[in-house]
Amino acid sequence: MSPTTHQTAPTRFVEAHGVRYAYRRLGAGGEVPLLMLQHFTGNLDNWDPALVDALAAHREVILVDYPGVSSSTGAHATTVAELARQIITFTIALDLKRIDLLGFSLGGFAAQDIALVRPDLVRRLILAGTGPKGAPGMHGWRSDIAEHARAENPSGEDLLYIFFAHTETSRAKGMEFLGRLFQRTEDRDVPSSIESRDAQYDAVLEWGIPDHSALQRLTGIRSPTLIIQGDDDLMIPTKGSHLMAGLIPDARIRIYPDAAHASLFQYPTEVAEEIEEFLG
């Protein structure tokens, strides 16, 4: 039997509090699974297969659609705190007592909250392309990024503009990523809706309201933390990662060169190796 991969893992469902969560599990090994939380409007098929498969070679990986997004039912969260509670409910439904947690972008916002309100749940924390609540430069996106991120029918060009640096070398890596992204042909996830997009943007805006005191929350994160970002993130300022690294008590930071928002998709092999070393 062929091993299960990101392209072949079946979509499963679990119900909790009236919500039917869509998720996928793959990989094996280790006692602590890695739960991965997706970016703005992202679904199960928006993860880079190269990254997911490299991580799943060493451990169990769990991907999930947020309530109201793509194949999950339920009400859309309009704040990050609400989104974090929804994911905690999902972990309870799967009887996950201890997890490693990777949050990308909006998923990284939720991951910070989860690590704070359920410190015993999160063994190790990975924050990729994300930023801290209330920090400077976090209150919404610049106009060109917002235009591409909030497109009614997002295209590959929209993803390239947001996720990759505006250089020939980074865009070339972006084209490779797009080629991997659409390889799955069966049991694909459904696109996220306009309603879920707007609810998530409300959550992004609420998270980014300037609030210097909110930064002190980071000092309460007890999980060892790995912070990953590109050196020229146009969506979430890279300086926010340095801020998080200085405030989270046990944090390390890795900034990837010639990269923007999705450094983990531009450097999937290198990022997977960095994560595996950190988790191991």
UniProtKB/TrEMBL annotation:
Residues 33-266 form the AB hydrolase-1 domain. SUPFAM superfamilies: alpha/beta-Hydrolases. One of its GO terms (biological process) is acylglycerol catabolic process. GO terms for cellular component: membrane. This is Alpha/beta hydrolase. The lineage of its organism: Bacteria, Bacillati, Actinomycetota, Actinomycetes, Kitasatosporales. The keyword Iron-sulfur does not apply. The keyword Hydrolase applies. PANTHER family: MONOACYLGLYCEROL LIPASE (PTHR43798), MONOACYLGLYCEROL LIPASE ABHD6 (PTHR43798:SF5). GO terms for molecular function: monoacylglycerol lipase activity. Coiled coil: none annotated. Keywords: Hydrolase. Pfam families: Abhydrolase_1.
